Amino acid sequence: MSSASPAIRRHVSSETVEPVQPFDGNLARHGLSLVRGKTRTLQVNVGYLCDLICRHCHIEAGPGRREVMTRETMDDVVAYASRVRFKTIDITGGAPELAPGIQAFLARLSPLTRKLILRTNLVALREEAASGLMQSCREMGVALVASFPSINTSQADALRGKGFWGKSIEILQDLNRLGYGCPGSGLTLDLVVNPAGAFLPGHQEQAEKRFKQHLERYDIVFNNLYNFANAPLGRYRTWLEQSGNLDHYFKTLFERFNPSTVEGLMCRSLISVSWDGALYDCDFNIAAGLPHGAAKVHVSSMTGYPEEGVGIATGDHCYACTAGAGFT
Amino acid sequence: METYCDPKDLGAFSEIGKDAPELANKFFDYYAAVFAEGALTEREKALIALAVAHTVQCPYCIDVYTRACMEKGSNLTEMTEAVHVATAIRGGASLVHGVQMRKIAERLSL
Fold it and tell me: β-strand A270-273 against A279-280: which pairing, if any?
């Protein structure tokens, strides 16, 4: 059968729909195992506080969450990043824009890495707690990775809340005025798109082309678009269960398991620090409660990179990172 | 309750190749080539397929191409418009045959 993969091919490629196997067992069936490579990225989840209550959020972030990284834990992270240099440091949440002390945290991390990334949901940048953040990110050359779920107003608002889409457009325009996403500025503005429902993302390059064409109407430019599947965890998993989509979603992830994604999975080259300082192999494992290594390790006890060749904790949510083009 | 159309049947589509594998392979290879990106994008082709699925009233195709359209970034407004295109052509095809009806009626009438 051809290498192309139209919708119907997925339904004819197997004898019948196979039951979903445990992730590790499926890797073994393909002669694969998931172990750490050289760690290049330090990801820091500064907490679950967020101004939005997104229906696809794997970490169930929201305005009522109190799990936020303390100044002491931020000190521990800075000390680790000083001891062990990472090519990339990636700050996420929740809405990291709202974490108390975030600007000072970024300023201390900036000289310690080649690339400092701040994840943003865009609208949090307009919150009072984030006052001056855009400008200081610009001065430090922090790369921004913005969630922007859809170019369709109703889809975006359904996922993130009424009025999200219009505000996001205004903030993208503000960021462009600061130089973000503009050619030659050196200020990276990438967009991340997650499907607004129980289906997988389409072709990334085609989506990027379409988003660029569409956002041109609003004089908005950006650098790259990343199209990721939603991990079946947290609020999204609850919605999948309640809407009767969970089984089909897992079957779809399983059917589209792509063994060639395993080598490049982000968890092989990234270590994730939770808001409380504990280490995980990825942000999804924070949500799943699967720590790095056999037991919880605090960032303050780390003297070097995580050991290469050590197994990565996995769960059924890992299928979201190995479907199609994968999460790399 | 048993029905002629079972959603699980779609997963058994490959069985159609059991007694005529060469023809099935040719069909599925052709099918794959048709839906690959060309002068039209995969998203545009999925919208056309969705409209045709409604014209031929295939529940399997409607299921598959609703999902495909959403995965490829189409929204409900675009998908509903595509279904209206199918409806307009299907309805128009009936209505335009009214010309034939009128011609026959005129010939038969005093």
Answer: antiparallel
